[in-house]
Amino acid sequence: MASFNIVDECLVPKRLAWLYYRGPDAVGFLRDIKGNLRFIFETSTTRVRERKLMWDYSGDPIRFYSEFWVVKEFSRFTEMWVSIRTLGYVSKGTQHGNWSLELYGDLRHKFEPSNWLLKYTWLLYNYLFYNKIRERYIIMCRDYIQKFLNWVKEKYNLRTVTTPEATLEELEEEKKIDEITHSKPQPPS
Question: What does pTM read for this prediction?
Fold first, then answer.
């Protein structure tokens, strides 16, 4: 039997959040983030994964790249996935450097019915109740991402950040643009 998979992005209308840092001890960020992700996202250490850590010592400055994943379970059907990528440079002599952080978050809803009755029961349940729960989970996901970004900004003495909210005017403007780009050209009369 097929499964239902729904993916909701947390940072709509923007897809990604970015932070930039320039100053001393840029590599210290990797130590700090590794130890604090589980506390910020309130999850266990098994749900925080350092996916990649790459270094290039061959020249000056030293270059580094890292990827972290955080997976937090909201319910039996829903998990939050946050991907954090960092690219940075550190001078060998002065230990000053910079890094840029890219953050993406989404919610993954998955249901695998074992028979046709459960399939249609899930569709009804999703339509009547679970859509409202999904909206609440999106807000929770945004709050966790906001908490993480504010922690980084506070730790490295950067300005506080707010994640963008979609306004009705922006959504209507996007709809108009979509209608213009997807409308069929009219034949000349």
Answer: 0.77
